[in-house]
Design brief:
Helices cover 37% and strands 20% of the residues. The protein is an alpha/beta fold and 452 residues long. The chain folds into three domains: 110 residues, Dna Topoisomerase Vi A Subunit, Chain: A, domain 2; 101 residues, no CATH class; 222 residues, Rossmann fold. Strands 15-14-13-16-18-17 form a six-stranded mixed β-sheet, sandwiched between helices. Strand 10 and strand 11 form a beta hairpin. The model has no long low-confidence stretch (mean pLDDT 90).
């Protein structure tokens, strides 16, 4: 595979700052190669110089690390430019910072682009507010590289509000997933409570306050955020095509779990390549929710594609091995073995598209967007995206959310998944009682107002 160029460009003012960034790239971004580069403003402190750089680049992300003087007049440039982030440094120059601090600021720049969610009094959660006349209320004000934002809709809203015993009426919660098990829950743009989801204990809420509920116009929120999403879509498609053209591949494989990230990857793959090149593979463990399998079949019909379904037979090993646990996830090995078997059957030279995102863990944040794993090239186009971006993107492309999300799940897996927290285990028990085709169809109808 030839070395790739152009996913993230870091802008700094001077050549000495550039040398520091190159040192950080060498030490903190191993495996990225030319996918992360550094350019200078040639010593200029003029905000217009930044604008010139931005105007000339449309197929990558730009992160400008600037001191206080350079930031004056430049920060507002990020509005309406989804691929630009202006990071104000605590020092006047990048070269006055320690390498680890520089790395954290680059990651803050990446995070800023995915955490741009604002509340507008009309009942909208928007990703792009550049064209609005009124002043929006930004939801996430403290930018952290591992923070994520997602919306909770459907019956899951009631599940979350019941934990806090908040009596309000709304059709959509916005949830800011912070580090560990702490989440901030917003009702109509106001922080209503902090939701804590321990691994091995019941969920609870703290700092609860009553807020006035309202209905959120999710569809209009997506329509008004579509230009923002298309910029990110273009960057992803450009990356996918660059990787494909860097070597000789005979198939583009999308391991499709039925979750939001792998479904978005499938849509991107179908936009980047001809349909005959793309092969989605769904591994059925025998312990998947019925609704998950139905969702894969339903979306396959919408997209008019053939999906390879491979059986992993995890359930047949439980009697001899016992239930999988955090320390012994033997189920994952069986699933991966089944996926590998299916890939080898359909392709001799595959390119694998995975749904990894930075916010999932520090380990995935450090992982390069293109890597070779067990001799096979994997590319993660959604790496810089947030959950709400993925959710909006699916609905923008007329693809419904997996109904399991409508019931309150944040992530999907088998119903014996050892990664489930206490809350998810309790939710799984409730869902298994209604897990059938009739409920699946009901949940699809319930979200019809979301699909654009």
């Amino acid at each position: 595979m030839r070395e790739l160029e152009g996913l993230v460009t870091v802008l700094v003012r001077a050549k000495k700052d550039r040398d520091v960034i190159r040192h950080v790239i060498d030490n903190y971004y191993k495996g990225w190669g030319g996918l992360i580069k550094v350019e200078t403003l040639e010593g200029s402190r003029d905000a217009e110089k930044i604008l010139e750089k931005v105007a000339s680049v449309k197929d990558r992300y730009l992160i400008a690390l600037l001191g206080r003087e350079e930031c004056e007049g430049a920060e507002r440039m990020a509005e309406g430019r989804p691929n630009l982030s202006i990071v104000r440094l605590r020092t006047s120059k990048v070269r006055n910072m320690r390498p680890l601090e520089v790395f954290v600021n680059i990651e803050r720049g990446k995070a800023d682009m995915r955490l741009r969610v604002s509340w507008v009094r009309k009942g909208l959660y928007l990703l792009d507010v550049s064209k609005l006349r009124e002043t929006p209320q930004r939801i996430v004000r403290r930018i952290h590289p591992l923070y994520d934002v997602y919306m909770c809709v459907g019956r899951g809203v009631k599940e979350i509000l019941n934990i806090a015993r908040v009596n309000t009426s709304t059709n959509c919660l916005l949830i800011v997933k912070r580090v560990h098990d702490e989440h901030d829950v917003y009702v109509c743009g106001k922080r209503a409570f902090e939701l804590v989801l321990p691994d091995n204990d019941e969920p609870y809420a703290r700092s609860v306050r009553e807020v006035h509920g309202c209905d959120v116009d999710v569809r209009d929120s997506i329509v008004l955020s579509s230009s923002f999403l298309r910029v990110h879509e273009d960057i992803c498609i450009t990356l996918l095509r660059k990787v494909f053209e860097s070597s000789e591949y005979d198939k583009v494989i999308v391991p499709w779990s039925g979750g939001k990230d792998s479904t978005a990857c499938l849509i991107l793959a179908l936009k980047a390549f001809s349909k005959d090149l793309v092969c989605p593979i769904y591994v059925d463990t025998g312990l998947d929710y019925i609704m998950n399998r139905l969702y894969v079949e339903h979306v396959s019909n919408i997209l008019n594609i053939d999906t390879v379904i491979e059986r992993a037979d995890v359930g047949e090993h439980i009697d001899s091995r016992g239930l999988p646990s955090h320390s012994m996830r033997w189920c994952t090995r069986i699933k991966l073995k089944a996926l590998k078997r299916a890939i080898e059957r359909v392709s001799s030279r595959p390119l694998i598209i995975v749904g990894d995102r930075d916010t999932e863990s520090l380990y995935r944040l450090r992982r390069p967007p293109v890597r070779v794993h067990e001799g096979v090239v994997q590319v993660a186009p959604l790496k810089i995206w947030s959950s709400i971006m993925v959710q909006y993107y699916l609905l923008m492309n007329k693809i419904p959310l997996n109904p399991l999300y409508m019931l309150g799940f944040y992530r999907l897996g088998c119903y014996i998944c050892p990664a489930y927290r206490y809350y998810e285990l309790d939710l799984a028990e409730k869902v298994l009682r209604i897990d059938d085709e009739s409920t699946f169809l009901d949940l699809l109808r319930e979200q019809s107002y979301l699909v654009c």
